[in-house]
Amino acid sequence: ELQRPFATGLKRLSLNPMENVLHRLIRREVFSRCSLLITTRPVAMCSLKPLLKQSRYIHILGFSEDERRRYFSSYFANEEQARNAFDIVQGNDVLYKSCQIPGICWVICSWLKERMERGREISEKPSNGTDIYMAYVSTFLPPSDNEDCAELTSHRVLRGLCSLAAEGIQNQRFIFEEADLRKHNLDGASLDAFLSSMPYQEGGHAKTFYTFRHISFQEFFHAVSYLVKEDQSDLGKESHRELRRLLDEEEEEENGEMTLSMQFLLDILKKETSSNFELKFFLKISPSLKQELMYFKEQMKSIKHKRAWDLEFSLNPSKIRNLVKGVQISDVSLKVGQSNKKSHDRKSFSVKTSLRDEQKEKQGPVVDKDNTAKTQKETSNGKGREMEK
């Protein structure tokens, strides 16, 4: 769930006995005739996929339109509140689509209900998921209890939640003890809007463990942790580390996805969201920080350009050979079909090609008599792709 490198971790035994049990279950070394139910995100699923045998995948689609309406009716005890809240959501495309996800639907309902019960006008119009989290967090952060205090109570709590989340992400932890909260100057009992508590009895001692209400909250606060620091230079290290991870995954699996924390940061970079963030949390994002985020955004674009892409265009038959000879990119496939559109040339073809920006071939591809396009490498290993005329 926290982007743990499953493939690497499963190749060796862990010192943690619980992790070893999990690894053996996944490898079907124990209870091989039983089914193992794993719920996770697509990113982690890509890492797990090669390790699973006889696997079946189910994508949870979330709430339908009718189920969204029923959820609002069950969440709000007051029918008029439920109706008004649902009208607000229907009037905003981002809110309405986000309510398809049960966890986010709960976030939106909780935020709307709190605003209504306080008698406050709901003027926010979220333009992305980050806006939803900002609206929720700014609503539930405690107000200042002392105007003469050097630092607002809300700022102290925000910094504490951010440092707790960052420590958890960096150490692959999402369950915390009361000692962890005290370390970050947090009182778990008064933060039920952000933290869930779990009582635990061990022998004669009672303990309370805490988790963020949803792992996405932990990732949101992790992202914000770079914006509330006095020294914001750490973001540079984090963004470069994240970029390196994405590049490594791109090379190995070709499906690298950035962490949710970095997605939150890039959303906050947007001008309107950035202004909204500064107004809600009374924080100023430094120009150098924005520049670092812009650099990371440009690097992300570069990664996307290296992935497989499609190109459609029309060519005359006489230029097809020049195209094939001129393309010096490996893993090239060409499909040529007769175009029905009128053209100045009677023999116009529509060409669709998929290209992957990889290492160049030493020799250009060749075209045989059967109109089969192959690179020299593909010719030798029999992986040519057919050109359909």
What is this entry, summarized?
Residues 354-377 have a biased composition (Basic and acidic residues). This protein has 389 residues and is mostly helical.
Walk me through this protein's architecture.
This is NACHT, LRR and PYD domains-containing protein 10. It is a single chain. This protein is mainly alpha-helical. It has four domains: 46 residues, no CATH class; 61 residues; 153 residues, no CATH class; 78 residues, no CATH class. 49% of the residues lie in helices and 12% in strands. The protein contains 17 helices and nine strands. The strands form three sheets. It has a three-stranded antiparallel β-sheet. It has a three-stranded antiparallel β-sheet with strand order 4-6-5. Helix 7 packs across helix 8, helix 8 runs parallel beside helix 14 and helix 12 runs parallel beside helix 15. It starts with 5 loop residues before the first helix and ends with a strand. The N terminus and C terminus are likely disordered.
